[in-house]
Amino acid sequence: MTDQGHDELQPTGVADIDREHALELRVVREVQAALLEGNREKALLLLARLEDVTNAHFLTEQLLMRLHAYAGYEQHEQEHDVLIRELQALSQQLSSGAPVDARLAVHQLEHWLLSHMATEDHVLGEFIRQSPAHTP
Prior knowledge:
mainly alpha; Four Helix Bundle (Hemerythrin (Met), subunit A); 5 helices; disordered N terminus
């Protein structure tokens, strides 16, 4: 994944993916708000929700990649694994009571998501839209 400084949601043109991306980003911003309020308990609940939403979204993408025989499947799946590990690490850090730079933690998470969506997911969306198996 390249870092191009993306700071807003870039649509892929695949409705299911775009809806799920919007939900993921909304939950990330809810986590950010909870952390900025100093509400770790709420942030932990929201991080668990984000992990669930993200896992479900990754399943959607992985099914679409298989359906459309996407050559970049393995690399894309590895990127997904990185994000899940980062979510789990942040949850563990919050659970342990360790000091957390809330702004930095959520900024990095949001930046990762937006960059992934604007690069890897954009390429995937373009591939799916051009696939003969795609139905808009």
